[in-house]
Amino acid sequence: MYVITGATGHTGRVIVEKLLAEGKPVRAVARSAEHLKPLAAKGAEPFVGSLEETAMARAFSGAEAVYTLVPTPLTAPNVRASQNRIGEALATAIAKARVPFVVNLSSVGAQLSEKVGPVTGLHDVEQRLNRLEGVNVLHLRPAFFMENLMMNIPMIKNMGINGTPMKGDVATPMIATKDIAAEAAERLLRLDFKGKSVKELLGPRELTMTEATAILGRAIGKPSLPYVQFPYGEAEKAMIGMGLSPDVARGYIEMYRAFNDGIMKPTEQRSAKNTTPTSFEAFAEEFAAVYKQ
Ligand SMILES: NC(=O)c1ccc[n+]([C@@H]2O[C@H](COP(=O)([O-])OP(=O)(O)OC[C@H]3O[C@@H](n4cnc5c(N)ncnc54)[C@H](OP(=O)(O)O)[C@@H]3O)[C@@H](O)[C@H]2O)c1
Protein backbone atom coordinates (compact mmCIF):
# COMPACT_ATOMS: atom_id res chain seq x y z
CA MET A 1 0.00 0.00 0.00
CA TYR A 2 1.19 3.51 -0.87
CA VAL A 3 -0.19 6.38 1.20
CA ILE A 4 -0.12 9.85 -0.36
CA THR A 5 -0.81 12.91 1.78
CA GLY A 6 -1.88 16.17 0.13
CA ALA A 7 -3.50 13.86 -2.43
CA THR A 8 -5.71 16.53 -3.94
CA GLY A 9 -2.92 19.09 -4.30
CA HIS A 10 -0.51 19.87 -7.15
CA THR A 11 1.97 17.08 -6.49
CA GLY A 12 -0.11 14.53 -4.56
CA ARG A 13 -2.86 14.18 -7.19
CA VAL A 14 -0.37 13.42 -9.97
CA ILE A 15 1.52 10.93 -7.77
CA VAL A 16 -1.71 9.08 -6.95
CA GLU A 17 -2.63 8.89 -10.64
CA LYS A 18 0.82 7.65 -11.64
CA LEU A 19 0.88 4.90 -8.99
CA LEU A 20 -2.66 3.78 -9.91
CA ALA A 21 -1.61 3.65 -13.58
CA GLU A 22 1.11 1.18 -12.52
CA GLY A 23 -1.52 -0.98 -10.84
CA LYS A 24 -0.41 -0.13 -7.28
CA PRO A 25 -2.78 0.12 -4.30
CA VAL A 26 -2.99 3.74 -3.16
CA ARG A 27 -4.60 5.44 -0.15
CA ALA A 28 -5.22 9.12 -0.91
CA VAL A 29 -5.26 11.46 2.11
CA ALA A 30 -6.82 14.94 2.29
CA ARG A 31 -9.47 16.74 4.35
CA SER A 32 -12.06 17.22 1.60
CA ALA A 33 -14.07 14.08 0.80
CA GLU A 34 -15.51 15.91 -2.18
CA HIS A 35 -12.10 16.64 -3.70
CA LEU A 36 -11.02 13.01 -3.17
CA LYS A 37 -13.93 11.66 -5.24
CA PRO A 38 -12.22 11.83 -8.67
CA LEU A 39 -9.24 9.87 -7.28
CA ALA A 40 -11.56 7.29 -5.69
CA ALA A 41 -13.26 6.91 -9.09
CA LYS A 42 -9.85 6.02 -10.54
CA GLY A 43 -9.31 3.32 -7.89
CA ALA A 44 -7.66 5.07 -4.93
CA GLU A 45 -8.84 4.38 -1.38
CA PRO A 46 -9.93 7.79 -0.06
CA PHE A 47 -8.91 8.70 3.49
CA VAL A 48 -10.48 11.86 4.86
CA GLY A 49 -8.35 13.23 7.67
CA SER A 50 -6.24 16.07 8.93
CA LEU A 51 -2.47 15.87 9.31
CA GLU A 52 -2.55 15.01 13.01
CA GLU A 53 -1.12 11.99 14.74
CA THR A 54 -4.14 9.80 15.45
CA ALA A 55 -5.63 10.13 11.98
CA MET A 56 -2.26 9.69 10.26
CA ALA A 57 -1.34 6.58 12.30
CA ARG A 58 -4.55 5.04 10.89
CA ALA A 59 -3.91 6.42 7.41
CA PHE A 60 -0.34 5.01 7.35
CA SER A 61 -1.19 1.56 8.71
CA GLY A 62 -0.04 -1.19 6.35
CA ALA A 63 1.90 1.27 4.17
CA GLU A 64 5.11 0.21 2.51
CA ALA A 65 5.78 3.82 1.62
CA VAL A 66 4.26 7.24 2.25
CA TYR A 67 4.53 10.62 0.53
CA THR A 68 4.48 13.43 3.09
CA LEU A 69 4.10 17.16 2.77
CA VAL A 70 3.52 19.95 5.25
CA PRO A 71 1.13 22.52 3.78
CA THR A 72 1.82 26.11 4.78
CA PRO A 73 -0.86 26.95 7.39
CA LEU A 74 -1.85 30.32 5.96
CA THR A 75 -3.76 31.64 8.96
CA ALA A 76 -1.55 30.27 11.75
CA PRO A 77 -0.47 32.78 14.40
CA ASN A 78 2.96 31.08 14.45
CA VAL A 79 3.67 29.36 11.15
CA ARG A 80 6.85 27.56 12.22
CA ALA A 81 5.20 26.16 15.36
CA SER A 82 2.27 24.89 13.26
CA GLN A 83 4.57 23.28 10.72
CA ASN A 84 6.48 21.63 13.58
CA ARG A 85 3.26 20.25 15.05
CA ILE A 86 2.36 18.67 11.70
CA GLY A 87 5.92 17.35 11.26
CA GLU A 88 5.84 15.82 14.74
CA ALA A 89 2.45 14.22 14.04
CA LEU A 90 3.70 12.78 10.73
CA ALA A 91 6.90 11.43 12.34
CA THR A 92 5.03 9.80 15.22
CA ALA A 93 2.50 8.25 12.86
CA ILE A 94 5.29 6.89 10.62
CA ALA A 95 6.97 5.30 13.65
CA LYS A 96 3.71 3.86 15.02
CA ALA A 97 2.75 2.37 11.66
CA ARG A 98 6.35 1.16 11.09
CA VAL A 99 6.49 2.62 7.60
CA PRO A 100 9.85 1.68 6.01
CA PHE A 101 10.00 4.28 3.20
CA VAL A 102 9.11 8.00 3.13
CA VAL A 103 9.37 10.49 0.26
CA ASN A 104 9.01 13.92 1.87
CA LEU A 105 8.28 17.12 -0.05
CA SER A 106 10.61 19.83 1.24
CA SER A 107 12.06 22.85 -0.58
CA VAL A 108 15.20 24.40 -1.97
CA GLY A 109 16.69 26.28 0.98
CA ALA A 110 15.64 23.71 3.60
CA GLN A 111 19.27 23.25 4.63
CA LEU A 112 18.84 26.64 6.35
CA SER A 113 17.36 26.98 9.83
CA GLU A 114 16.80 30.77 9.70
CA LYS A 115 15.91 33.67 7.38
CA VAL A 116 13.99 31.70 4.73
CA GLY A 117 10.41 32.20 5.95
CA PRO A 118 8.16 29.10 5.82
CA VAL A 119 11.09 27.04 4.52
CA THR A 120 12.59 27.15 8.04
CA GLY A 121 9.62 25.02 9.14
CA LEU A 122 10.38 22.55 6.35
CA HIS A 123 13.98 22.46 7.61
CA ASP A 124 12.68 21.48 11.05
CA VAL A 125 10.47 18.77 9.53
CA GLU A 126 13.43 17.32 7.60
CA GLN A 127 15.43 17.19 10.84
CA ARG A 128 12.54 15.54 12.68
CA LEU A 129 12.09 12.85 10.01
CA ASN A 130 15.86 12.27 9.96
CA ARG A 131 15.67 11.24 13.62
CA LEU A 132 13.39 8.29 12.77
CA GLU A 133 15.41 5.13 13.25
CA GLY A 134 15.18 2.39 10.66
CA VAL A 135 13.14 4.51 8.23
CA ASN A 136 14.46 5.35 4.75
CA VAL A 137 13.64 8.99 4.03
CA LEU A 138 14.18 10.85 0.76
CA HIS A 139 13.64 14.62 0.99
CA LEU A 140 12.78 16.24 -2.33
CA ARG A 141 13.83 19.90 -2.41
CA PRO A 142 12.15 21.54 -5.39
CA ALA A 143 12.66 25.11 -6.58
CA PHE A 144 9.97 27.86 -6.79
CA PHE A 145 6.82 26.37 -8.31
CA MET A 146 5.88 27.77 -11.75
CA GLU A 147 2.24 27.31 -10.66
CA ASN A 148 2.68 30.02 -7.98
CA LEU A 149 2.31 32.51 -10.84
CA MET A 150 -1.26 31.31 -11.50
CA MET A 151 -2.23 33.32 -8.39
CA ASN A 152 -1.29 36.49 -10.29
CA ILE A 153 -3.93 36.02 -13.00
CA PRO A 154 -6.45 38.38 -11.31
CA MET A 155 -3.70 41.02 -10.91
CA ILE A 156 -2.73 40.73 -14.57
CA LYS A 157 -6.38 41.02 -15.61
CA ASN A 158 -7.29 43.86 -13.26
CA MET A 159 -4.08 45.91 -13.08
CA GLY A 160 -2.27 44.97 -16.29
CA ILE A 161 0.93 44.08 -14.41
CA ASN A 162 2.65 41.01 -13.01
CA GLY A 163 4.31 41.54 -9.66
CA THR A 164 5.79 39.93 -6.55
CA PRO A 165 8.32 41.14 -3.97
CA MET A 166 11.06 39.34 -5.94
CA LYS A 167 13.53 41.58 -7.80
CA GLY A 168 12.99 41.52 -11.55
CA ASP A 169 16.60 40.61 -12.34
CA VAL A 170 17.29 37.79 -9.86
CA ALA A 171 17.62 34.52 -11.77
CA THR A 172 16.08 31.64 -9.86
CA PRO A 173 15.19 28.06 -10.77
CA MET A 174 11.47 27.44 -11.33
CA ILE A 175 9.86 24.01 -11.62
CA ALA A 176 6.56 22.57 -12.88
CA THR A 177 4.85 20.63 -10.08
CA LYS A 178 4.13 17.68 -12.38
CA ASP A 179 7.89 17.14 -12.66
CA ILE A 180 8.16 16.94 -8.84
CA ALA A 181 5.33 14.40 -8.87
CA ALA A 182 7.06 12.37 -11.60
CA GLU A 183 10.25 12.13 -9.52
CA ALA A 184 8.32 11.27 -6.35
CA ALA A 185 6.28 8.58 -8.11
CA GLU A 186 9.35 7.04 -9.73
CA ARG A 187 11.22 6.85 -6.42
CA LEU A 188 8.13 5.43 -4.68
CA LEU A 189 7.93 2.73 -7.34
CA ARG A 190 11.66 1.93 -7.21
CA LEU A 191 12.13 2.32 -3.43
CA ASP A 192 15.83 2.62 -4.20
CA PHE A 193 16.80 5.03 -1.37
CA LYS A 194 18.47 3.97 1.87
CA GLY A 195 18.97 5.92 5.09
CA LYS A 196 18.36 9.65 4.90
CA SER A 197 18.95 11.52 1.66
CA VAL A 198 18.13 14.76 -0.17
CA LYS A 199 17.44 15.45 -3.82
CA GLU A 200 17.20 18.97 -5.23
CA LEU A 201 14.90 19.47 -8.24
CA LEU A 202 15.72 22.61 -10.19
CA GLY A 203 13.33 22.82 -13.14
CA PRO A 204 14.63 23.30 -16.68
CA ARG A 205 16.65 26.53 -16.18
CA GLU A 206 17.06 29.70 -14.10
CA LEU A 207 14.74 32.57 -15.01
CA THR A 208 14.28 36.10 -13.75
CA MET A 209 10.76 37.34 -13.00
CA THR A 210 11.17 39.85 -15.85
CA GLU A 211 11.94 37.00 -18.28
CA ALA A 212 9.12 34.83 -16.88
CA THR A 213 6.66 37.73 -17.22
CA ALA A 214 7.67 38.28 -20.86
CA ILE A 215 7.05 34.59 -21.65
CA LEU A 216 3.66 34.63 -19.88
CA GLY A 217 2.77 37.93 -21.58
CA ARG A 218 3.45 36.47 -25.03
CA ALA A 219 1.37 33.36 -24.20
CA ILE A 220 -1.66 35.45 -23.19
CA GLY A 221 -1.39 37.95 -26.03
CA LYS A 222 0.04 40.78 -23.88
CA PRO A 223 3.67 40.85 -25.04
CA SER A 224 4.46 44.10 -23.22
CA LEU A 225 3.10 42.94 -19.82
CA PRO A 226 5.36 44.71 -17.29
CA TYR A 227 6.92 43.08 -14.21
CA VAL A 228 6.82 45.16 -11.03
CA GLN A 229 8.74 44.40 -7.83
CA PHE A 230 6.43 45.25 -4.93
CA PRO A 231 7.96 46.95 -1.86
CA TYR A 232 8.19 44.53 1.07
CA GLY A 233 6.00 46.58 3.43
CA GLU A 234 3.18 47.04 0.93
CA ALA A 235 3.24 43.39 -0.11
CA GLU A 236 3.12 42.30 3.54
CA LYS A 237 0.08 44.51 4.19
CA ALA A 238 -1.62 43.22 1.03
CA MET A 239 -1.10 39.60 2.13
CA ILE A 240 -2.64 40.34 5.52
CA GLY A 241 -5.51 42.05 3.68
CA MET A 242 -6.06 38.82 1.73
CA GLY A 243 -6.47 36.88 5.00
CA LEU A 244 -2.96 35.57 5.71
CA SER A 245 -1.91 35.80 9.34
CA PRO A 246 0.69 38.49 10.15
CA ASP A 247 3.27 35.78 10.90
CA VAL A 248 2.70 34.02 7.56
CA ALA A 249 2.91 37.35 5.69
CA ARG A 250 6.12 38.21 7.57
CA GLY A 251 7.48 34.77 6.66
CA TYR A 252 6.75 35.12 2.96
CA ILE A 253 8.45 38.54 2.91
CA GLU A 254 11.46 37.00 4.66
CA MET A 255 11.51 34.31 1.97
CA TYR A 256 11.36 36.84 -0.90
CA ARG A 257 14.14 38.82 0.77
CA ALA A 258 16.17 35.60 0.93
CA PHE A 259 15.67 35.08 -2.83
CA ASN A 260 16.67 38.69 -3.53
CA ASP A 261 19.73 38.54 -1.27
CA GLY A 262 20.96 35.23 -2.75
CA ILE A 263 20.38 33.28 0.50
CA MET A 264 17.53 31.12 -0.80
CA LYS A 265 19.24 29.09 -3.49
CA PRO A 266 20.19 25.51 -4.33
CA THR A 267 23.25 23.91 -2.78
CA GLU A 268 24.11 22.02 -5.99
CA GLN A 269 25.31 23.09 -9.43
CA ARG A 270 22.78 22.40 -12.18
CA SER A 271 23.24 18.94 -13.70
CA ALA A 272 21.26 16.37 -15.67
CA LYS A 273 20.34 14.76 -12.33
CA ASN A 274 18.59 17.81 -10.84
CA THR A 275 17.20 19.30 -14.09
CA THR A 276 13.56 18.53 -14.86
CA PRO A 277 11.93 18.52 -18.31
CA THR A 278 8.89 20.87 -18.40
CA SER A 279 9.95 24.20 -19.91
CA PHE A 280 8.59 27.53 -18.70
CA GLU A 281 7.22 28.04 -22.22
CA ALA A 282 5.18 24.80 -21.89
CA PHE A 283 3.90 25.98 -18.50
CA ALA A 284 2.99 29.34 -20.10
CA GLU A 285 0.59 27.49 -22.45
CA GLU A 286 -1.18 25.98 -19.40
CA PHE A 287 -1.17 29.42 -17.80
CA ALA A 288 -2.73 30.94 -20.91
CA ALA A 289 -5.47 28.28 -20.98
CA VAL A 290 -6.43 29.15 -17.38
CA TYR A 291 -6.11 32.88 -18.09
CA LYS A 292 -8.54 32.61 -21.00
CA GLN A 293 -11.21 30.68 -19.03
N1 LIG B 1 5.02 26.94 -3.80
C1 LIG B 1 6.32 26.75 -3.92
O1 LIG B 1 7.02 27.45 -4.68
C2 LIG B 1 6.98 25.64 -3.15
C3 LIG B 1 8.35 25.38 -3.36
C4 LIG B 1 8.93 24.33 -2.66
C5 LIG B 1 8.17 23.58 -1.76
N2 LIG B 1 6.84 23.88 -1.58
C6 LIG B 1 6.06 23.07 -0.63
O2 LIG B 1 5.06 22.38 -1.34
C7 LIG B 1 4.03 22.01 -0.42
C8 LIG B 1 2.67 22.08 -1.09
O3 LIG B 1 2.61 21.03 -2.04
P1 LIG B 1 1.50 20.97 -3.17
O4 LIG B 1 1.60 22.23 -3.98
O5 LIG B 1 1.62 19.66 -3.86
O6 LIG B 1 0.17 20.99 -2.33
P2 LIG B 1 -1.06 22.00 -2.51
O7 LIG B 1 -1.46 22.05 -3.95
O8 LIG B 1 -0.74 23.25 -1.76
O9 LIG B 1 -2.21 21.19 -1.75
C9 LIG B 1 -2.17 20.90 -0.37
C10 LIG B 1 -2.75 19.50 -0.17
O10 LIG B 1 -2.70 19.20 1.22
C11 LIG B 1 -4.02 18.98 1.72
N3 LIG B 1 -4.06 19.58 3.07
C12 LIG B 1 -3.90 20.89 3.39
N4 LIG B 1 -3.95 21.06 4.72
C13 LIG B 1 -4.13 19.82 5.26
C14 LIG B 1 -4.27 19.33 6.58
N5 LIG B 1 -4.21 20.14 7.64
N6 LIG B 1 -4.46 18.01 6.76
C15 LIG B 1 -4.53 17.16 5.69
N7 LIG B 1 -4.37 17.55 4.42
C16 LIG B 1 -4.20 18.87 4.20
C17 LIG B 1 -4.95 19.66 0.72
O11 LIG B 1 -6.23 19.06 0.66
P3 LIG B 1 -7.41 19.48 1.73
O12 LIG B 1 -7.42 20.98 1.75
O13 LIG B 1 -8.66 18.85 1.19
O14 LIG B 1 -7.00 18.88 3.02
C18 LIG B 1 -4.19 19.37 -0.59
O15 LIG B 1 -4.42 18.03 -1.00
C19 LIG B 1 4.21 22.92 0.80
O16 LIG B 1 4.77 22.17 1.82
C20 LIG B 1 5.25 23.91 0.35
O17 LIG B 1 6.04 24.36 1.38
C21 LIG B 1 6.23 24.88 -2.25
Automatic annotation (TrEMBL):
Domain NmrA-like: 3-272
InterPro entries: Ergot_Alk_Oxidoreductase, NAD(P)-bd_dom_sf, NmrA-like
Listed SUPFAM superfamilies: NAD(P)-binding Rossmann-fold domains
A Pfam family assignment: NmrA
Domain of life: Bacteria
Gene3D superfamilies the UniProt entry points to: NAD(P)-binding Rossmann-like Domain (3.40.50.720), UDP-galactose 4-epimerase, domain 1 (3.90.25.10)
UniProt cross-references to PANTHER family, sorted A to Z: PRESTALK A DIFFERENTIATION PROTEIN A, PTHR43162
Name recorded for this polypeptide: NAD(P)H-binding protein
Naturally occurring in which organism (per UniProt): Candidatus Manganitrophus noduliformans
Lineage of source species: Bacteria, Pseudomonadati, Nitrospirota, Nitrospiria, Candidatus Troglogloeales
